Amino acid sequence: MLGTHIEAKTGRRGSGILPLIALVILSIAGCNQSNTNQKAASEVLPSSGKTKIVTTFLPVYWFTKAVAGDQADVEILVPPGTEVHEYQAKPENVRAIATANVLVKNGLGLEKFLEETIKNAQNSKLTQIDASAGIKPLGEISPVVNTATEEKNHNHEHTEGNPHVWLDPVLAKQQVINIRDGLIAADPKNKATYEANAATYIKELENLHNEFQQNLQNNPNCTFITFHDAYPYLAQRYKLKQVAVVEIPEDQLSPSDVRNVVNTVKKYKVKALFSEPGVDNKLLKSLSQDLNLNLQTLDSLETGDKNPQHYFKAMKDNLQTLTTACQ
Ligand SMILES: [Zn+2]
After folding, report:
1. Could you tell me the pTM of the whole model?
2. What is the pLDDT of residues 111-141, one digit of tens each?
3. What residue ranges carry the coiled-coil annotation (predicted)?
């Protein structure tokens, strides 16, 4: 039907077929031209544009973004709200690293997905910054009570020491300094900006540290239980005692898990139980009521808002929680 319609049309126009071909050629040429332009634009962008920094997860993103400001493009590989400890790399992570100038990681074995991802990205010009360089890792300073069911899963996790250094404001400052120095080495023309931005953020970290010291000094040796071995650095800094009951299953507490927690509470004269934001606490809640302990929320800062200032908000909430719980 359509064919005959066109035939009939061109037939009526006689020599009208020639302008039609001309039009088609013209439009193909136009197409090619715009394609070439787009390609050229995207090829030019990285070299003429800002330094591209890829960070692994939220705290490292905050610290890097705070130092870089708008002087560099800062991306995050593990989206906030996604579990970092067991993260599996996505193809877009490989692409992000392949086109980056700088990669910033927390280190201390936290980013287990990274080694393979970097290998696959084949970016020989990539500068890597280990935010925990020079920080002495803690192994088992906190008593860690492994639940029977999860023991196997957790064993490999702390082979390079505990990675949660960002939860101690003093070590967070060390991480910011490492990131600052790494960025200056990779992108020296923006040295002054990186130094000024880092100085502002470091001042805030020092104020936060003072606030922690002042508020917690009246409650020495406050012992608390967490279900995520995230606070040994914070506890050591402010003379608290973390007992980590590691990885209680969120959906179901087995009788041995319950026994484990009860025994641990008795053994260490525990003052508080701390869960995490976003975890369904129904079972822990009833357990804490049975034990006559408050169940509260302590934030390991592995999820949250991407604004670098969120670090201070979340840490001040943690301080409030600890101060109240340890009284
Ligand atoms: Zn963690």
Report:
1. 0.81
2. 999 999 999 999 999 999 999 999 999 876 6
3. none
Domain 211-326 has what CATH class?
alpha beta
Q: What per-residue string of b and e applies to 176-214 under the rule 16 or more CB within 10 Å gives b?
A: bbbbbbbbbebbeebeebbeebbeebbebbeebbeebee
Say how many Å lie between the CA of residue 267 and the centre of ligand 1: 25
Q: Distance, CA 190 to ligand 1 centroid (Å)?
A: 33
The answer to whether residues 63 and 165 touch, using CB atoms and an 8 Å cutoff, is: no
Centroid of ligand 1 to alpha carbon of 92 (angstroms): 23
CATH superfamily of 50-130+168-209: Nitrogenase molybdenum iron protein domain (3.40.50.1980)
The answer to whether 101 and 81 are in contact (CB under 8 A) is no
CA 273 to CA 258: how far, in whole Å? 13
Report the DSSP beta bridge partners of residue 243.
225
Altogether, the residues listed in the chain come to a count of 327
**Domain coordinates in residue numbering, the chain:** 50-130+168-209, 211-326
Residue 322 Cα to ligand 1 midpoint, Å, equals 18
Query: Could you report the per-residue pLDDT of 189-216, keeping only the tens digit for each?
Result: 999 999 999 999 999 999 999 999 999 9
